[in-house]
């Protein structure tokens, strides 16, 4: 069943065309929520990512975060086919029929009264709907370039969040074409009973198996990049502290002493500090250039791995399904 809905707009006295114009103040860009992953083309083994589109909070009749998450959790409940059921002969068509009935009900009760419509699309159809230009000759999504590793700080988080990095890359590829999503919530609804916990476990394990190869390659590249730059980063950080300290001393002497009353010694001190600052800034620029050159060499050495990761992630991106919400 659908969650209890917010009040629908009252429009008994308006003709249909005026109702649609009034409700046009809904969302400016489509909402596209990706499936968490997709196992070798089997579409009913992964749920849609648990998130909330903030755009739904600013429409004429808002859909709250809790109401939307209840809808999403219920959709995932009817969408995800448990591998054990498939093994004993349960037809994926049954999942399809359940999903279609649920989506019809959700549209009638939750989205259409707000001038919206939700549908489940392949990546190719989603890309066509939002008008994305970053596609190959067959109309498939081409992911944007991955973010560069800028420093060795936060390395532990980077290694731990390889899967999240792929999701971020996927959504960055759609930036400007779809509404933003907020993932600041638990990844999964808390199961209500033991059966639900059992049903939720295999799909989660399957997702981890699917993502392991790209994640392992990403970690290997990340480790090599960090090892190549960590000494440069330490020196750059130290130079940054010295530059800041030098600037603070120059500023202090310049502000606290009137230029007309400075002694020759004080003038020399300020001059020496400025000369030291210039030298530190030149050294910093040189250190950054050396770091970038070394990093480029590492990337060239791992070019094959970069290509493999990029190919795998593009395959995953074009294999998943999307929950798309757009104006009706």
Q: Would you count the extended β strands for me? A: 3
Q: Give the number of domains.
A: 2
Give the biggest beta sheet. 3 strands, antiparallel
Rg from C-alpha positions?
A: 27 Å
How would you portray this structure in words?
A three-stranded antiparallel sheet has the order 1-3-2. The chain is elongated. Residues about 20-25, about 85-90, about 150-160 and about 195-210 have low confidence and may be disordered. Helix 8 packs across helix 10 (about 305-320). It contains ten helices and three strands. The protein has two domains: about 15-210 and about 315-325, no CATH class; about 225-315. It is mainly alpha-helical.
What are the SSEs and their pairings?
Elements: H1 16-22, E1 31-34, H2 65-79, H3 83-87, H4 92-111, E2 116-122, H5 123-130, H6 155-160, H7 162-172, H8 194-256, H9 264-301, H10 303-319, E3 321-327
Antiparallel strand pairs: 1-3, 2-3
